């Protein structure tokens, strides 16, 4: 991949240095590319997305090629900088002054010169103010030097380490290595596992940060499409659309469509739905069954992964138990005979219809209560009646569950 370096023209400061001699009849040029002699303040290390201010210095040499006296001068920013296209901004005119000095220290100022950025053809046009009364001093000078400031910005990652400003001016540099970090947390809420990602651009610049999330087994967990939210803080989360959702709902991809600068943090939240039918009558998924792995990478080479599993209790169905009356001590008559108190018990199993209860073992015990004597407590009646949600009734067993009883005397 090639480096894309955006050049944005900024404040213009022009300075004329040491005009020592009247210009002779030498060849002239309107191309400032012929006069670029150096680039000042060029940083040796660049970060993607960061703006740097440099100065481009243009000079004519005595008895050699001279600036064109009339009309405009044009500098054409290279169509390729480090092997990729550039960008220009700041359209419109900017006025600046030029100060002339001779060998004796006397100075003159030419006011109202202009610079214009032309984004359509990547040029900067400089026009001297020919109406200024000191303009003749400028045309008479044979070694004029001026400079203007440029804001330079790296817009994309790659491998190039040189910017070609002209045939002779090609400064080299190194790119700051990008480093990105991701942490992950999960909590259960009803039928969903809710995940939170914290993505940090630790060092350098990270662009086109891509998040790839993968559930280990979509038989147990499936990505809840449309649940994805993004924000720079946990309180600013808003819904966003995934760039890709796996066909089997085992995960998704999402791209952060702006450059993350050093220290910048982003948050993503999303959900996975629990498949109770696959969990069956167990109370939890294993770490392998619930594993969720996220990989985060950027164009600059930043990469990190995080895996988290939910091994907390995941009960696919519940049991509610009610009695027709509270248990009491049996009444005793004058002869010592005990009367039998009958209590009807009712179990409500899997009332929300989650999962499959096939093979579930339900155990009910009659036991002693502290301070009471229930030694005569026992089951009575025809047996256990099972009623499904459609009203179908069956004694003792059914195709859905096996009822097992034990009595503690």
Task: Name the features.
41% strand, rod-shaped, disordered C terminus, 409 residues, mainly beta, disordered N terminus, five-stranded antiparallel sheet, six-stranded antiparallel sheet
Would you summarize the structure shown here?
The chain has 409 residues and is mainly beta. The chain is built from 3 helices and 29 strands.
Task: Describe the protein.
The protein has helices at 135-140, 276-279, 287-290; strands at 4-9, 28-29, 36-40, 45-46, 51-59, 66-67, 72-76, 92-101, 107-118, 123-127, 145-156, 174-175, 179-189, 192-203, 209-215, 221-223, 229-231, 238-239, 244-245, 251-256, 265-274, 292-297, 303-308, 319-323, 345-349, 361-366, 385-387, 393-395, 402-407. It is built from three helices and 29 strands. The strands form nine sheets. Strands 13, 14, 16, 17, 18 and 21 form a six-stranded antiparallel sheet that branches. The model is unreliable at 1-17, 82-86 and 397-409 (pLDDT under 50). 3% of the residues lie in helices and 41% in strands. By secondary structure, the chain is mainly β. The two termini are 80 Å apart.
């Amino acid at each position: 991949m090639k480096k894309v370096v955006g050049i944005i023209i900024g404040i213009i400061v022009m300075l004329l240095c040491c005009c020592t001699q009247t210009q002779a009849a030498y060849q002239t040029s309107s191309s400032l590319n012929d006069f670029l002699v150096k680039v000042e303040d060029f940083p040796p290390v660049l970060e993607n997305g960061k703006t740097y201010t440099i100065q481009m210095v243009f000079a004519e040499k005595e008895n050699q090629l001279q600036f064109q006296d009339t009309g405009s001068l044009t500098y054409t920013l290279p169509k390729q900088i480090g092997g990729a296209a550039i960008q220009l901004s700041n359209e419109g005119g900017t006025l600046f002054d030029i100060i002339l000095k001779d060998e004796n220290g006397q100075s003159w100022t030419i006011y109202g010169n202009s610079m214009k950025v032309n984004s359509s053809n990547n040029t900067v046009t400089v026009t001297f103010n020919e109406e200024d009364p000191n303009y003749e001093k400028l045309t008479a000078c044979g070694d004029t030097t001026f400079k203007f400031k440029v804001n330079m910005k790296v817009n994309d990652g790659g491998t190039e380490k040189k910017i070609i400003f002209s045939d002779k001016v090609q400064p080299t540099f190194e790119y700051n290595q990008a480093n990105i970090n991701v942490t992950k947390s999960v909590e259960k809420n009803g039928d969903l596992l809710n995940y939170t990602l914290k993505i940090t651009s630790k060092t350098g610049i990270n662009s086109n940060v891509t998040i790839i999330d993968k559930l280990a087994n979509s038989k147990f967990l499936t990505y809840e499409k449309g649940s994805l939210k993004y924000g720079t803080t946990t309180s600013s989360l808003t819904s966003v659309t995934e760039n890709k959702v796996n066909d089997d709902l085992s995960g998704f991809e999402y791209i952060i469509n702006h450059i993350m600068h050093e220290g910048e943090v982003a948050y993503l939240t999303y959900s996975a739905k629990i498949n109770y039918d696959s969990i069956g009558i167990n109370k939890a998924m294993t770490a392998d069954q619930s594993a969720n792995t996220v990989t985060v990478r950027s164009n600059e080479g930043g990469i990190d992964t995080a895996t988290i599993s939910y091994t907390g209790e995941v009960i696919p169905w519940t049991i509610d138990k009610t009695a027709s009356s509270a248990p009491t001590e049996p009444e005793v008559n004058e002869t010592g005979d005990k009367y039998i108190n009958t209590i009807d018990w009712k179990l409500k199993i899997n009332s929300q219809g989650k999962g499959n209860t096939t093979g579930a073992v339900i155990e009910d015990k009659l036991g002693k209560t502290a301070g009471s004597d229930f030694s005569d407590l026992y089951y009575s009646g025809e047996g256990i009646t099972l009623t499904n949600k459609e009203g179908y009734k069956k004694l003792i067993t059914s195709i859905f569950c096996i009822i097992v009883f034990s009595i503690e005397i």
